[in-house]
Each structure stands twice: as C-alpha cells, then as structure tokens.
Amino acid sequence: MDFTLKVWRQKSAKEKGSFHTYQIKDISPDTSFLEMLDILNDQLTRKGIDSVAVEKGCKSDGPVTFDHDCREGICGMCSLYINGRAHGPDNEITTCQLHMRKFKDGQTITIEPWRSAGMPVIKDLIVDRNALDKILQAGGYVSVNTGGVPDANTIPIPRDYAEESMDAAACVGCGACIATCKNGSAMLFVSARVSSLALLPQGRVEAARRVKAMVAKMDELGFGACTNTRACEMECPKSISVSHIARMNREFLLAKIKD
Amino acid sequence: MSEKLNSKIPEGPLSEKWTRHKSQIRVVSPANKRKLDIIVVGTGLGGASAAAALGELGYNVKVFCISDSPRRAHSIAAQGGINAAKNYPNDNDSVHRLFYDTIKGGDYRSREGNVYRLAEVSNLIIDQCVAQGVPFAREYGGLLDNRSFGGSQVSRTFYARGQTGQQLLLGAYGALNRQINLGSVQSFTRREMLDVVLIDGEARGIIVRNLVTGEIERYGAHAVVIATGGYGNVFFLSTNAMNSNASSIWQCYKKGAFFGNPSFAQIHPTCIPVHGEQQSKLTLMSESLRNDGRIWVPKRKEDVEKLREKKILASQIAEEDRDYYLERRYPAFGNLVPRDVASRAAKERCDAGYGVNETGLAVFLDFKTSIERLGKKVIEERYGNLFQMYEKITDVNPYQEPMMIYPAIHYTMGGLWVDYNLQTTIPGLYAIGEANFSDHGGNRLGASALMQGLADGYFILPYTIGDSLAGKIQAPKTDVNHPAFEEAERAIKDKIERLLSIKGGESVDYFHKKLGHIMWDYVGMARNEKGLEKAITEIKALKDEFWKNLYIPGENRELNQELEKATRVADFLELGELMAMDALLRKESCGGHFREEMQTEDGETKRDDQNFMYVGCWEYAGKEAGNVVHKEPLKYEFVKIATRNYKD
Questions:
Q1: Tens-digit pLDDT profile for residues B459-484
Q2: Which of A137, B117, B356, B424 is the most exposed place for a label (fewest CB within 10 A)?
Q3: Which fold has domain B14-264+413-472?
Q4: Judged by CB atoms within 8 Å, which residues 138-157 of A form the interface with B?
C-alpha cells in the first residue's frame, strides 16, 4: 500500500511547527501504524529527506520523533492524532494497535501530536504529560504503608463493585480523553482513578480527601471543565465510561457539602 | 571461586533462614535514615515498590525512569497474574509447595535460600496490593479468585483480568506517588542512566542523560538500586517494550559487578507469530490462556498443506485428526507444562513440518472445547481483552478460529549477580527484580516475575539495604564534583561524541536486527557448540561494523531517539557476546538453556549436575582480559535433586 503522510514537525517546545508531507510506498496491510512510521524514519535516516519528501528543497529534519514503548496497547506511551482522531480511525485501541489495513491504498494521512494546553509539545509528535502524574500525586492512591495490612480476604468485596472498579482502573493514562475534549478537560482521566478507588472499601476511607485534592490539582494545572459531550468516552482506548465522571462529581459534591 | 562471591545465605533450617537473617542484620534509626540518600533506577514493579517502601521508611530517595511517567515501565504489560501460597482454594498449596515448584521449574539452577524466601513473602504481597486498592478478580461471595499457571498443579495465581501487571504497577505507582507528594521521594522522568559512579570501590552515584535536553547530569547517594529489568531486547524481536534495555546493568558489569547466568533467557510459548521483516516487536498472549486453551497441530501433513494454502480453516479439521501434542507427551500437566517445555514442543512439531501458517512457524491455541463446556460468556469474562487484542493484530476472531501462536523471547533469568541481601559484588550497589539473576534458575514459572519484583521491592530490599547503610550513618553526602564523577561524565560524553561522529551509512535498527537474527539463530531456543562459536565470531564482526558504519542523525543536545537507541545497541552487542560465551561454556541442557548435544532420547533436557550445578558468574576484567568466569556452586540441602518430570 502507498500513502501520503502529512506529519507535524516541530523542533522544540519553543519553536513553531508545521506540516511536512512525505510519500511512503509498499507498506504491507499487516504493518502496524507505528511500524509504518519506523519505515518512514528508516528512509529518512538512511536515504535522506529527498527519498520521501514531496516538496522539493525541503530541509531535512531527521526522523520523526514520537512516543511509544510497549506496542501492545497497555503502557499508554503512544499518542498521535491521526486524521482528526485520537489513536486513529478505529475504536478501543491505542495507536500501536492500529494497523494499516484500516486505511485505503493511496490515502492521505494527517498525523499530529495531542493538542491541549495541559500537554504542550516537546518535539514533533511528543507532548509533555507531566501534569497527569501531578494530579495522581495529589491523591490518587490509598494511604497505606508497606506491611502491617490485614489478610487479603478479610474484607469481602461484592464482585460487581470489584469489576466496575477494574473497568475504571483500566485507564492507561495516555491523554486521549484530554486531547479529544474541546475544553481540554481531564475529567475522564481523573474520575477513572477517583471512581476506581471510591468503589472499594480500601479506598473509601479517604475518598472525600482524595477527590478534593485531585480536583483541586486538576483545576490548578489549567485543565478545562466538562460539558458532557462524551467525546472522551468515544476516543478512550479502554472505553472508560463517563459514568465515572458522574461518580466523581457526586463524590466531590458530598465531600464539599461536609466541609 | 572469587572471594567476592559470598552468597551470604544464612545457616539453619530453610524455613528459619529469613527470620534469622532479619534478626541479625543491622537497622538504621529513623533519625539517621533522614540523612541517607538512595538512588533507585527504574520504576517497574521492583523499582516503584522499592522507592515507595524506602521513602516510607524515611530515606531520601531519588527515582529515575526513561519514560515520561513511572507508570509506563514494562511491568505494566504483564497479563496473567501473580503467584502466592495463600491456599485460598483449599487445594493443598503451601509455602513449601510454591518453593518446590519454583526450584523444580527452574531446573535446579537457583538458590534454595532465595527461592524459599520468595515463597515465604508471597502472601504478604497479595495482602499489600489489596490494601492499596488493586481490583483483583473476585468470586460472587466477595473473596479473591485464583487460576492456574504452568508448572504447578494447584491454583495459586491471583489476577486482574488480563491486566495484572498493570494493576499491580498502578498500586506501586500510587504508593510511589504518595511518597513523592510527601516529599520523601523525588522523581526524575525521561532520564537514562548511562553509568554508575564508584568512589573507593563503593557505588555512590549515577550519571544520567536528560533525554529531552541531552544534558548529562550527576546524582549522588549512599546506595544505588538497579531495577531496570531484563535484556530480552538483545534479540531485537521480543515481547519486551521497545525501550527496554540492558544499559544500566551492563554499565554496572563494566564497573565490576558480576553477571550471573547471562545465557538464561526464557522463550514464551504463546506469542503471536512473526508476520514479516518490517515487524518491530512481538506480542504475548498470556499463559493464563493455557488454562482453557488447548494446543494442537494437525496429525496429517495434507491438512497442514491445505491450511498453509488457506484451502481449509482450522475449525474444519476433525477432532480425531488433531494432535494435542502437549496432552499426548505430558499427560500429568498437559497444556500447563512450564514455558521452556511448551516452547520446545512447539518447535519440535514445526521443525517436523507441522507448522500451520505460511512460514511454518505457528501452532494452534484452541478454545473450542472450553467454549463448548463453559459457554462463550465465561471465556469472554476471563480473557475478553486478550481476545480483542489478538483480533486487532491478526484480523482473526479467536472465538471462531483458534489462535496461532509461536514461541518468542520474553524474560531473562540471568542478570546482575546478587547475594542474599540483593547486593551485587560492588558494595552499595543493589539489583532487584528481573535485573538480578537470583530466583528463577534456568526457567521462570509463569506469574512469578510479578511476585519477585514486588517481593524484592516491598519486603526484602527495605530490610537488607539497612544492613550496609547502618555503616554509613556518619558518611557525608556524596560530592558530585568528586573526580570519579568527572571521569565518568567525560567517558560518557566521549562515547556519545564517538557514536555521533561515525557518520556511516546504516541506521541503529539495521545493526540491532542483525544482532537479533544471530542471537535467535544460535543463542535462541536450541543451541550447539558450533553455532555458539559462530555467533561469537559474527557478533564481534558486527560490533566492528557498528562502530565503523553507524549513522545517527541529529545531535546530542536535543531529544534524539536514534542516539538513545545507539547507546543501547552498543551495549547489547557486548552483552550478546557474553550470552553466547556463557551458553558455550554450559555444556548441559537445563530449563530454557537447551544444548542440542545434551538431550534425552525423547528430546527432553539433559542436565549435567556433576559438572554444571553452579551459577556462571562473569566478571569484566578490563579491556585486555575481557570476560572471566567464576563459579558459585549450588548446594541443595533440602530438596532432592531429580530429573524434571511433567509426564506423570
């Protein structure tokens, strides 16, 4: 398969970026999207910019820089806005699980970084997601020290609660929800952690404290508000439901009322 | 035996060793802990749990990872589960049985004392994780559920769907985040350790490259903990994450830490087969699938032909024409034999011409029987996300047609040599989790890597590190302007400069792929003397070519992923050679190390306990002398050594 790629290139956080157009040929439909970018990068490195660039006289920017690691949809490292969709034109996947068979031969593919005020570009397609760590550091845990905890079967947990907690805990922290949201809201990401822990007796103990701390940090870091468009849920590679946002809102309200 | 090789296994009965040891090692008072700095490199299960636990104790901890967040570490990809000897299912499990299964699964090439301790603390891990809010799978009564893994006849594996590693890591990452919030741990992301710094023979700091700016940074401490995982990526194609690498442990080795059993690599039987030359990595299908999946190939070659030509579907082959070869060869354990056994059996069938895809390198993993017995819904609940993952990659629906699988490199049992305190041969330098060699011998059992990472990080290192730090309470903070830091930094800058200035014609991946082919062909699932010698020669030649003909675009002072890969592959080239040397020396078959010269009539591994019941401990003795081997003899006082038998 052959493709025309319009790729966002940006040398650093400080410099302005722009789209560069490349042409890439003979890609097997079984190739993953990131492997296709590997092939592009290999050509950019070994054969030089003229082997793939569409515009003549285009200055070489070297290989395209992008985040990736596990390549099996679990580490949350890969990102990419592909043809206007976070993680590309398929549902319930991260970019590394996208395969070229999902595109048409000869298609033009636009590749951009996440674009959101809370996640600035570092280089090319890589963004800074440090803010997500900071929100979790504010309270996304159960405050227990190592050792001295009760036997694991001391507290029975209804299976349905454990399952729903697991649904929320499946979040990989990729940031697709934030990149997709027109408000740049991190509500789905934050609520996934809040909800997952609030559903379990171990997490209930400090549920009020947790939700207040995490929401405050989220607001402090400049993430937007939720206006219930549900775009985040649509683009979440793990299909995390907006019902967790509802639970977080309730938790937050109750906690605030008690203040 | 080198005098440095003192394993420090405590005397006394097996079940009292750890208790006795804990009562004898020194502790550091809370006031003094505040004065002591510890560096932890890596944030997987081992690193995150260690950094959190050490922070809780009151030490000043600095933790480093190469990703943008500690949560990305490759422990996150572990699917199936974590073992513990809870005996919740009442199926006669015990600490001793878990210990015995692990020693036997490792083909009698691990230390009794270490493995027993691992089994002993396994139960604490489950308690800890539940307290952290890890959503393990539960029964309707609200209690924890278990399943089975290879190499055991009991159900002792705890799990959170097919994302157990992710959930355990999020638990440890949460504990780490709490310490970061409290100020006891400082987190440094997108930093890659490029060297360990020794002052007066002790580990006192590290040199890292800031992967965003390219700047070289120095960090000092009273002790350094390496938790950077394994080196499976030396094979290029493996189930490891793309950025997983061996550079941290390799730099420790080059500075004098011994390397234990480098040739012991695990090949996992159930991975999605290779599809082509452009492939970048292999995807694992969890071992838990072998609970309900049955592995087979056709009995008749004509069916194989038709499958390869896509004239028939697997589901059209009649029951009586299928060869469930694991059930046939190993009736007692069936589809749940250990990984090395299952991998070799798959290779045997494919080598005999029964491979079921175009490349002839695939076998079936079939859920038909289980779906008929339990219904689709139950299978979906147990493995839904794995089935989805398989379909996304292959475009085949595994509810209708069996999965195709083939063995791939997955884990490395070898690693930095450590004593019972998890300290390497360099004082003050510790190695935990997959980065050390200690617990799995020649083959690791499924669901035991998560157990070991968390055992080391939560419950072993926080005790044992105190023993040496108690002697350092008067030691001043490490001065990062010490000449040792200057020298280490200069060496790194020189190396980077050299790599960038080669300006040859080939990319890093070109060399990495070539190395991977050599490793897989000669140092992979089956090894022999001639092949290993050839591998050593070829790797040397490739290394020369690498340093003459590599091309890295861009410069040092920027985010440069090609440069990152180059420093890693430079180390893989040296490590690959050491692996081949170790495999060549070990003229026996044990666990995942299969020397073709040493096999029984029916193709099983043949150990040579007389000559090889030892840990191969390699020392880097400088440029001239190169790699020198020492031997740590393994003593079995409590377990009767036997030939591994999974047949009856």
A1: 999 999 999 999 999 999 999 999 99
A2: A137
A3: FAD/NAD(P)-binding domain (3.50.50)
A4: 138-147, 149-153, 156-157
